[in-house]
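Exam review. A common question shows you a sequence with its structure tokens and asks you to describe the fold in words. Practice with the pair below. Do the first one on your own.
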Amino acid sequence: MPELPEVETTVRGLAPFLEGQRLVTVSTFRPDLRRPFPADLAQRLTGATVTHLARRAKYGIVSTDRDDHMIFHLGMSGRWRTKGGEAGKHDHLLLETGAGHRLFLHDPRRFGSVDLVNGNPLAIFPAFVTLGPEPLSDDFDAAYLARSLAGRRAPIKAMLLDQTIVAGLGNIYVCEALNMARIAPTRAAADLSRAKLGALVPAIKAVLAAAIAAGGSTLRDFLSPEGDLGYFAKDWRVYGREGERCECGGTIVRIVQSGRSTFYCPKCQR
């Protein structure tokens, strides 16, 4: 599933094609993805001008001058295709601008979603209301994390994947950040010292920033809007590297936590 860096890459890639542009055609080619497209999507977006693009957690937001906000989630295999042409088999939504750009939402597995809200999406879209702070924001710091994890006996990895604690973190980057901070993913969250949390927060920010700079990770069929594969995967510290050597000299292992693969080094992650 595309994680925060992949969605950030997508939003940044869409901005040059959409910001300031009038939408002259909005078409859907099937009734639904993971859930139905908004019934009035085409009516409300056609003729509107895109004023801004943003990201919240793993969602992208396309805002218009009508105070309508199209919120998209890429699911497991979604991406925006910007090279134009005609709709293909797995292209399910078209946005065409007055400048002639034809942007297709491409999603072979159809686990993505598209919603439309009027007004402040951060305040009224149900999926956003309970989200924790963005991990790259100033609100996410060691003091905040200490307060949020106080008394929580669940493993630290599970707590970092809890979107009410911090928004947008996924399996890959949590594994990477925990390795960078030298914290075992199985440690009870409440047992982490302030020093450990002080190392964890900058590790999370560094891993995400590096992944965004590299264009996201190549995982299954993720592509940026320009059709380029993300290439952060070549720099993974532990993820997907079971049996390989950690930079500390230990051997990376794989365990399963809550049905998900966790990769870490027992030698340096305590």
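Now try the second one, then compare your answer with the model answer below.
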Amino acid sequence: MGFSIPRRWWQTISIAVIACVFSLVAVACAGGGNSPSVTAQDDVAVVSSLDRIIEAGTIKIAVPQDFAPFGSVDASGNLEGYDIDVANLIAEDLGVELELVPVTSDNRIPFLQTNKADLVISSMGANPERAKSIFFSIPYAPFFSGIYGSSELSDVGGFDDLGGYKIGVTQGTLEDLELSDAVGEDVQIERFADNSLTASSLISGQVDMIATGNVVASELSKNNPDKNIEGKFIIKESPAHIGLRRGEVDLLQWVNTFVYHKRLGGELDDFSQKWLGEPLPPLPAF
């Protein structure tokens, strides 16, 4: 492929954990104020989310169904992949039943906001715009986006080299946003409803190149060796985060603790070896 998974993203975990602790302190302090409306709202958010899931005995987790190796449908019609393994481990640790909710890139956040899912584990990158709508956990998986195409296109090494080419991308993804901002009108962007259609567009010759994630491109290259697919350049490093509804600070704190300890215990490394083909970057020292 020409790319190796970046190892700097996991250094953000220490900062994220500390930030989470400070956010909990801030919420606790806010609860001691004299504003009944704010206090009541915070109390509901802090008390209800994690307890509600445990009391109900079921957690609904949104996962990808068209984004191997993070999530796809096997020959028996069952969901499998890195994100599905993480979802199962969360339910096991909570002691509840797991209800998997298949989602696409476009409906991941809406499903969370409309209570169709308690968590979204769907190779989702975090950015300031998305953070206005939902909470993000610390990173649980490595990921970066790039431009991919045939090795015959040897003149492509950056955004400035895409002029005159047709680029496929999944609508509403970080790749779509980054590509749209970076190129001019001389680049034709073809948007598709899901990742499988985007991948198929490259194989069928509908587009010259695609903007997608490294693991998707790796899987595509492995399954289509005759196409000589290679990475042209990295668009953006974007480790995957678990998504939660805004205000559910207690659930966020639990998820962050879960991710960190499963990383320490090696379970997430096992998943990475199984699905991504290599170990996760080492944890930083505190």
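Model answer, second protein: Confidence is low (pLDDT under 50) at residues 12-47. Residues 36-56 form the longest helix (21 residues). Full marks require stating both points clearly.
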